Amino acid sequence: MRRSPKDSLESARKISRRALVIGGVQAATVATLALRMRFMQVEQADQFRLLAEENSIKIRLLPPARGLILDRNGGVLAGNGQNYRVVITREDAGEVEEVLRRLARLIPMTEDDIARTLKEVMRRSPTLPITVADQLRWEDFSRVAVNAPALPGITTEVGLSRVYPQAGDFAHVLGYVGPVSDYDLSKIENPDPLLQIPKFQIGKVGVEGKLEIDLRGKAGTRRIEVTSTGRVMRELDRKEGIPGTTLQLTLDRYLQNYAQARLGNESAAAVVMDVRNGDILAIVSSPTFDPNLFVRGISSADYKSLTENDHRPLADKTVQGAYPPGSTFKMVTALAAMEAGVIDPGETVYCPGFTELGNRRFHCWKRGGHGRVGLSQSLEQSCDVYYYEIAQRVGIDRIAAMARRLGIGVRHDLPMSAITEGIAPDRAWKLGKYGKDWQVGDTLNAGIGQGYVLASPLQLAVMTARLASGTDVSPRLVRARDGVPAPDPAPRPLDLPQDALRAVRKGMFDVINNQRGTAYGSRIVEEAMRMAGKTGTSQVRNITKAERDRGVISNDDLPWNRRDHALFVCFAPYDAPEIAVSVVVEHGGGGSAVAAPVARDILLQALYKDLPPLSAYPASQRDRIEAQRKDMNLLPRTDSQGAKSRA
Amino acid sequence: MSYLEYNVKTVPTGIRKVLHVNWPIVVLLTAIASVGFLMLYSVAGGRLETWAEPQMKRFAAGMVGMFVVAFVPIWFWRNVSALAYFVSLVLLVAVELFGAIGMGAQRWIELGPLRLQPSELMKIGLVMLLAAYYDWLDVKKVSRPLWVAIPVALILLPTFLVLKQPDLGTAILLVAGGGIVMFAAGVSWWYFGTVIALVVALVFAVFESRGTEWQLIKDYQFKRIDTFLDPGSDPLNAGYNIMQAQIALGSGGWAGKGYMQGTQSRLNFLPEKHTDFIFTTLAEEFGFVGAFSLLLLYALVVVFALASGIANKDRYASLLTIGIGSTFFLFFAVNMSMVMGLIPVVGVPLPLVSYGGTAMMILLLAFGLIQSAHIHRTR
Asked: Domain of A105?
């Protein structure tokens, strides 16, 4: 069919008109697109640019180095060691399980570890590195590094981890760090973002726990560019964190080491304090444990063996243990009585071996009695009847008040965990606690440090230091922070009657240096170093009348946990006191036989700031002491510098 | 009407045809494709072999194809228009029956080494057939209902096949492309008014059908509409693509972040960054200046195509040129609107820039038809 030229022309015109309409609509569309482009790219550009940055720039925290803990001479008690760890990234690993199995042939890993890691890896983003193992030994670590080509997705990293070079010696006082737990986080109101870092180490107990905020430091930041899946492309900038405060403690690591070794495997505690400024030179609880185990994550077998041990290695007996102080409390009773004026130092009391109160008999430890005793003899021979008498005269409330002045029944503020207040009982206390009135018999018991009275080894050391100095010296543990020394404490006088205090000290001197003294065997013969002290033996059971008639069973025949606690407190030199020591040996038997020699040895070590010369010991003991030293595994002295500066 | 009607004496022959090629269009297409190579190199992270190199090879092959088509007289193409349409239709049905499953939709068939997307072929086949239809049809009958119903049926038949795949983007392009040819051919305004009214009604029906058994579109398409209307409603899943695309585009600012410096694309925040969303990378790295320049290049191609169509006195050649030019326009307009958040995401690539074999080849062959119409126009 042919179209007429007219038709063709008409049709072409129509097409042209319609094409112009189409072109117009298209032009309008292009204009709309251009305007939209302009709107988004010019007017809203800043807004979108911000969104793009939020997308791709992430801020990661850099954990700061934890503050060091040093001893008084700068020896490291808690440092930061290289932590060799192995991490896996799922994205690069491919066959995660296969890779983990190959890894398990190189480093110690159990089936459980593999399963746990596998679960963790699958749960997290494929680009997030997950820690497979840390705290690796260098050999294992290097084996992984060497075999890296066979282990896709596995990378080796070096970080910082807490290390306690002195192992068990400072376990109780320093505590330990561990990975932050959900429980830890739940206790904190507004947690530091650092705590969100997986496996970030925080102090759990002891100085590490109490001074956590100082030791932790401030986080640094790292701005990184990440892809949509979280893979890190590059680091944009980095601001290093501020390391935690370096804490210098008052402790002497050699003395602490010696005391720990001297206590051996006994369930015991010892506290050494400078009577002039309250510096705690050593604070030792035995048996101990290796805090490094907790940093790595303790195995359940190790943990079980620690918790099931009847000597309770995990407990810090120095501040947490509360013991009846026994005869070591007699100085308190004596001072209370003399300050009240109910007896004076020269006055004597007759000891027939017991006191009768109503129809009850309160026995002296010596069945035959001591005869007539004055204050000095009463301490020297630890006569109980003398104290039954003066305790009755002065009354419990004044005894309790004196106890608190001397540091028993009050909480001493040290950065350590679960510090006990002890008990300095009085009428109000018993009424509040048991709803019962105070009985005279309670006073008698309290007068010799039995009954309701409880004190921790720390409190006994404070008491001894206050007796020795006559001041209200308080214990302190932190000597300097970041090199800035803590202000010197200025202990104030206690305002005790001077003649009474002198008499009490003389009595304590006689305990050790008089042949009849209960601790004569533990004397120091070096004239300038002679010590004063007091033994204590506190019962952990009641002795019935029937038992007493049969003859009291000797401690050696009793099961361990029913034996008496052995206590000893002492200070030296007698003429110008420097050091006070308290020792408690749980279920050790008698204070004079068990606690006193230990306390004497530690005291000498503290006085000489090194192993004392054998000449300080009584001649008959020197061979034994020498043999004993050989058996002790002591820290070799490395810093002659430190030893000198202390001299 | 046969080739005898063409005044063959005024039509260039042999090598002289080269002089009569619509060169501005060739230059513009090459420029646009070059922008594509640049962007494909960038989104591959600086690697040529990933996307840019195959794309260059296809472009070269496509250009050769374009010239081959261009040098074949337009009357030959007019005569095979119906054939092109029906071959496309058969292939569409074949895809429906044997097509490989890709991206949740049956879109291509394997023909030896060739992976063919019949829906791409159909966009051109439909325009060719409609142009031929109106060339054949008496001009006076154009607006009669019966003669309107036939092209409508020719449009709707492949549209439904494409929708079944489902490929909403191509379906829209088919309807719009066919509609434009009909409009250019002179079909009464009334029909278009009615159709627009019907479309509004259909949209309403689509929404009404949601959740019922006769649901007209797939759930993911509904979801796309939802997230288009409110991208914040699902920022981590479906809305994520739209938001990230807009962030990339907007954050480019006036002059862009610099070539290969786009954080959104380099760090993989952008979805399908080498195909449907490649424009956002361009906008991010070259800013408003770059994006607007590309838009201008596209617009110029359409301007030259429309001018050639208007100038051509032959009804078939004229309608074909306007139809193909408009289809090209629809491609980039829909894609850009989509990534700029003006319309829902429907899955239309950016012509000549997005990575994709068939789309580019067929587009270049279609431009071959425009060239053929231009070279062999009656003078």
From this structure: 60-249
